Amino acid sequence: MNALTTAERRGMQGISTAAGNMLIVAADQRNGMKAAILDAPDGSAAITKAELAEVKADLVRHLANHAPAILLDPEVALPAIVDDGVLARDTALVVGLDASGFEEVDGLRYTKYVDGVTPATVRALGGDVAKMLWYTRPDRQDTASRVAHEIRELVAACEAEGVLLIVELLTYQLPGESDEEYAASFASLVADGAALAVACGAKVLKLQYPGSAEACAAVTAAAQGVPWAVLSAGVDHESFINQVRTAMSAGAAGAMAGRSLWKDSLSISADTRAHLLTERALVRLHELAAAVDGR
């Protein structure tokens, strides 16, 4: 297990329930969140940065302030949500470092940092924890690969800054790979990606649901004691609740949910989204908290 420093341990406490399980509302999406706002008069693509910032602020007010932690981006949401007093004092802030999209080199995907954002920026924005996304294909990438070097470098930089880093991994289908081939290898790709990240020093993981209780147990074994949270990947809420219960029973340490909570609770109208976030998304958050804590 990659041991937490004292500062990182405090960060881990901040993103966890009283029972010690991770529970984070993910709202760092930019284009994905716009696409969920279906009633914008000129279409979701015409939503301005200021309008999206208001949506994110309401998502924090009516939903995330009831969770241990919220994941936000430094391009639209921050620092306004902190400076304007929207974020509750008891809700920890996770700052996403990854920019939207990815580049592809020789069939492999690579994410990029938001311009100018570093572990020090996380502190400057009022953050408690950082998150970075990497795309991984551990069948083609090892500890000498570019992605491994990037993980090691950021883990070290965050530790030096006293900022806990959540390493998010997404595996994906390669060009020319059939649906059947990818489906057959998916569970092992998730587990092997976890093993690769842990070998590079990762201390907390955010991973795709690998498909079954047996596959979750394999991920837990690959993580070698490093806590991992399952991400929602846009599935419906009921499906995610079942995935979380299965993952937790097989050694997962929590959940990070975005679209499964709020994808049908956003609106260009402040009144409408306040109602939907409170009456629909918040109910789901409470159900997710119960699943994470085994209640």
UniProtKB/TrEMBL annotation:
Gene3D superfamilies: Aldolase class I. SMART domains: DeoC (SM01133). Keywords: Lyase. The keyword Lyase applies. Pfam families: DeoC. Belongs to the aldolase LacD family. This is Tagatose-bisphosphate aldolase. The lineage of its organism: Bacteria, Bacillati, Actinomycetota, Actinomycetes, Micrococcales.
